[in-house]
Amino acid sequence: MVKISPSILNSDFGYIADTVKRLDAAGADWIHCDVMDGVFVPCISFGPPVIRALRKLTEKPLDVHLMVADPSSCLGDFADAGADIITIHCESPSCTHLHRLVTRIRSMGKKAGVALNPSTHPDALEYIYEDIDVALVMSVNPGYGGQEFIPAALRKIEVIASRINALGLPIELEVDGGVNTGNAKSIRDAGAAVLVAGSAVINAADPAGVIGILKGGQ
Ligand code: DX5
Ligand code: ZN
Fold this sequence. Notes:
By secondary structure, the protein is of the alpha/beta class.
């Protein structure tokens, strides 16, 4: 069964503790934390101190998605704050040496993820599959919650899922952006193993019900 990693980006940060506890109780498998630096993407969200606060509120893995221009300068801070999975963008300028950075994430005892923007070719992962735990396909341009799913992402999910399968590696294929109860089945069918859902879950009156549908229930 797929995992669901609800994103807290579009929640009311004044009630972030309540939100995380509610998502935890609603059946979230991971908690997706969108870190934005105002450089790689236009907005600024939050950094390590918030991750440290969230760490005390849930036992669920904190799935930290770094949308930042220079992840190399802050990987240690996020690891110390309690991130379990640290995902970096291969398009970040400081990811010229992507292999070095994912190796560093793993050497700190964390799971390493690599995210691909919508226009990035899946071959960007070809020589790094052995060194990562999560492959994150962005199905919107990173920067904002509440955007529409870009359909071409389905083709990319299929390609990456079949490479992971052919290589026989335990990589979790995660999809982020515009996931909702209407398109979750096609995303699962394309081969996704983890669905990020922001507005679909955060705005729901019944988050547990939505998480159940995203997982493939009725
Ligand atoms: C986009 C973020 C996503 C986003 C998901 O930049 O990385 O995680 O918050 O939100 P929805 O599900 O509303 O697209
Ligand atoms: Zn994200």
